[in-house]
C-alpha cells in the first residue's frame, strides 16, 4: 500500500476502505508517513469529504491507535462532556462541577486550544499549581474521591488524534465534519466513560456555520457513540456571539467561578447552557429519569453552593491553589491592557464571535503554530455585547496580555467585531434544540 496512491484516490473523490484508513492512521502515528503527506490527505478529505462508513473507520482507527482507558474502578455511571469548540466556551468548568455535585462521576478528558477556540486544559493550567498531566491511577482516585477530575489527552489515549489534531490546526483543515467527528469521538470512545454529552455549536464563532450543519454533525457523533455502546446525547447551541464576557484562559476560569457562586452572578447564557448540559449529564449518568428532573437538580446544586464546592475540590485535588475561588488576584496578572471604544452612539447590533476569538488569539490566548505557548493572562473582556446601548467613546471591550504589541494588534482586530446601529434585535437563545433524546 502506498500513501501517495491513497492521497490521489481521495483527491479524486474515491472511497477509502477500512484497511486503507488504518494504514495511513497507523503510519502517521508511528512516524512512517511524514507531515507533508498527511497534510495532503487531510486537505483531500477536507475538499472531497468522507461518507459515514469512512468516518466510522477513521474514528475506530484513531481510537485503536493507543490505549483504551479502563475506568471500571470508578463507582457509578461515568459521563464525559465535549464541546465542538467556541469562543468563550467555559462550559466544562460550569456544567462539570454542577453534575458532579449531583452525584455523576465526571471523568473528563480535555484538549488544548485549537485555532481561535480555547482548550479546557489551557484554561485550568492558568490556575497556579493546577496539573492536568496526571496518571490514570490518580485520575481514577480523584473521580472516586471528589466526583470530578480533568485530565489532558495523554500520548497513550488516541495518539493518532493528538498528532492529526495539531496538524489540522496549522493546515486549514479544521472545519470538516468527518475530521471533527473522528477527532472528538476517537477520544471519547477511548476515554473510558459510560456516557457522553455533546455540545454541538453553530454560528459565526463555530466550525459549523448553520444549525442544520450542527445537527448533521451531532447526529453523526451520537450514532457513532451509541453504536459503540456509550449512552450519547447532546444539544445544539448558538455561537453567533461569544459565551459570557470573558475570552481567554485565566479570565474564563474567573468567570466560571463567578457563575458557580450563583446568587445572581453569572451571565444568563452561561447559566442557561450550563444547566442544560448538566441536566443532560445527569440523564446520561442515570441520576435523573427525565431531562426536566436533571435540569431541576442542576439548578438546585448551583443555588445551594455544592457546585462551587466541587470546583474547589477539583482545583485542590489536582494541585491548584483553592484560594483562587475567593481571591482572583492569585491568578497571573496581565502586563498591559487596552480599551476598545465605541466610534458612535447607538446600539450594538452585531458582535462577531469569530473575530473576537481571532483577536484573543492574537493577544496571546491562542496558538498561531502547534509549538507556540499560551499566555494565560491574555484575553478579552466584553463590556458590551449585542443589544447593549452605547454612547460615542464608551468602552466596548478590554484587551489584556503580557505583550504590548500583541495587545495593540488584537485591539485593532477587535474593533471590527462590533457593529453599532440604531436599534437592537430579538435576543437569540443560546440553546436551540436537544439531540439524541
Helical/strand content category: alpha/beta
- What is the C-level CATH assignment of the largest domain? Alpha Beta
The CATH architecture term of the largest domain is 3-Layer(aba) Sandwich
- Along the chain, the helix and strand elements come as HHHHEHEHHEHHEHEEHHHHEEHEEEHEE
Q: Could you give the order of strands across the largest sheet?
A: 1-4-5-13
DSSP helix fraction: 40-55%
End-to-end Cα distance, whole Å, is: 42 Å
Give a short account of the largest sheet: 4 strands, mixed
Number of domains: 3
Q: State the total count of DSSP E strands.
A: 13
Shape label: globular
The parts where pLDDT drops under 50 for at least 5 residues are none
Radius of gyration: 21 Å
Please name the CATH topology of the largest domain: Pyrimidine Nucleoside Phosphorylase, Chain A, domain 2
Overall pLDDT score: 93
Number of helices: 16
Protein name: Pyrimidine-nucleoside phosphorylase
Catalytic activity: 2'-deoxyuridine + phosphate = 2-deoxy-alpha-D-ribose 1-phosphate + uracil; uridine + phosphate = alpha-D-ribose 1-phosphate + uracil; thymidine + phosphate = 2-deoxy-alpha-D-ribose 1-phosphate + thymine
Keywords: Glycosyltransferase, Transferase
Organism: Zhenpiania hominis
